[in-house]
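Homework help board

Subject: predicted structure for assignment chain

Our instructor gave us this sequence and asked us to write out the predicted structure in token form, then describe one feature. I got the tokens but I'm not sure how to describe them. Can anyone check?
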Amino acid sequence: MNEDTKHSEELVHSLNNPALRAEYAAPYNSYRPMFISRILGALLIHSGTLIYGHKPSYAKFKAIEVIARIPYQSWELGVYTILTALYSNERRAIDLAKLNAFSRIAQDNETMHVVVLSQIVQRLRCEGFFRHTFIPFLFAFFYFWIVYILFLFSRRAALDLNYLFESHAYAQYSEFLQNEGDRLKQTPITSDFLAFYGRNVRNEYEFFESIRNDELIHRNRSAHEANRY
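My token output:
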């Protein structure tokens, strides 16, 4: 585990404390994204709700996590596209490199989510190929290019859109923990990928608790970065 990941895992663990989590969330609870991001965010979230319903579930989370990685991948491509024309601008290059460092950590984190969730869903046999595999991958393809183009013309709008998506994910995981907490605490979890990633959890409650915290961190970081533009 590198130092950046170690620091991130320490933050994730600290957010299990409700008071610390509320304090961490507070500065960006009232953040207001740009109008274009609110429109795109509403389309994104309402489309997901139409297909997967309002209620959180394992299969719905798998679909969410397939899509959740996409903005960070789009940002990374956008960073290198912009740098192609701005190699001589050191200040801009440093600014973009810092954003790119965040996007890489977030990509690895979201990949961990979807790999482990896929194993759970496969074990429970609670997914359908069309709804939970084909549609998320098709959506991810178009979402990648939409976010990429948005990033090139307005980095704030791209970051704002991710703030909205991560806010929705945070709310969904919070609801799932509240509704299914007792059962999740009695359900052990083992995963080679979790061990490889460096996340230590004993049961599904701790796993989903850590994902909830991840999404809050991504939400806050997206708003923090957007405020710079």
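Reply (TA_rk): Your tokens look well-formed. For the description, you could write something like this. The CA atoms of residues 12 and 102 lie 15 Å apart. That's the kind of observation they're looking for.
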